[in-house]
Amino acid sequence: MRHSRTEVGRWRMLRQVQRRKARWLEAQSRRNMRIHAIRKCLVSRQRHLLLFATQES
């Protein structure tokens, strides 16, 4: 069964849009993971500093 050129073109465009969205979402989640990691590191550092601050006094 043969499809018209416009139909094929529409499918291609849709697939491209979906791929773009998927890539964007992946990039967003990577950015969020980095942000979470940095935040986690900062929090653990603060806890560490507080621990030593209480031991000295």
Layout of helices and strands:
Elements: H1 5-56
Question: How many strands, what sense, and barrel or not for the largest sheet?
Answer: none
Please report which band the strand proportion falls in: under 5%, 5-15%, 15-25%, 25-35%, 35-45% or over 45%.
Answer: under 5%
Rg (CA only): 25 Å
Strand runs, count:
0
Instruction: Please tally the helical runs, counting DSSP H or I stretches of 4 or more residues.
Output: 1
Q: Please state the overall shape, judged from the principal axes of the Cα atoms.
A: rod-shaped
Low-confidence stretches: none
What report would you give on this structure?
- By secondary structure, the protein is mostly helical.
- Helix content is 91%, strand content 0%.
- The chain contains one helix and no strands.
- It has one helix spanning 5-56.
- The longest helix is centred in the middle third of the chain and has 52 residues, at 5-56.
- The chain is rod-shaped and about 75 Å long.
- The termini are far apart.
